[in-house]
Amino acid sequence: QVQLVDTGGGLVQAGGSLRLSCAASGRTFSSYAMGWFRQVPGKEREFVAVITWNGGRTYYADSVKGRFTISRDNAKSSVYLQMNSLKPDDTAVYYCAAKQDYILLLRGISDYWGQGTQVTVSS
After folding, report:
1. 49: burial class by Cβ within 10 Å (0-12, 13-18, 19+)?
2. For a disulfide at 79, which of 3, 39, 67, 72, Cβ 3.0-4.6 Å?
């Protein structure tokens, strides 16, 4: 079992930055690929970024490429999402997710989800 706790959301002006954190419980964190997804009311949850178990590969949605950076610290059982140059369109609830198969995680298929953290970007 893996439990995920998302933190770091908030209200920021367009052009600003936020850093999301996801703390995982369990001793097998390093065996999981980790990802961030986001959802706005009335829309499906969408892929934002994924990082493989050792951080060797990262993947990003086109809409955030060059602005967001996903990273992880296996010693701290944590994954992060650094978000720069934020836009109003980035407003959403952000969820971290864990799946041992990163290919399935890229498709939004996950064994575990965080509770979500709200990011609001004002114009």
Report:
1. buried
2. 72
At 61 the pLDDT is 98
Burial per residue of 87-120, b for 16 or more beta-carbon CB atoms within 10 angstroms, e otherwise: eeebbbbbbbbbbeebeebeeeebebbbebbebe
Alpha-carbon span 94 to 26, nearest angstrom: 22
Distance, CA of 87 to chain centre? 17
* CB 42 within 8 Å of CB 76: no
Rounded CA gap, 3 and 101, in Å? 17
Parts of the chain with a pLDDT under 70: none
Q: Taking a C-beta distance cutoff of 8 angstroms, is the pair 12, 82 a contact? A: no
User: What is the pLDDT at residue 26?
Assistant: 79
Would you state the structure tokens that stand for residue 47, as one six-digit string? 């892929």
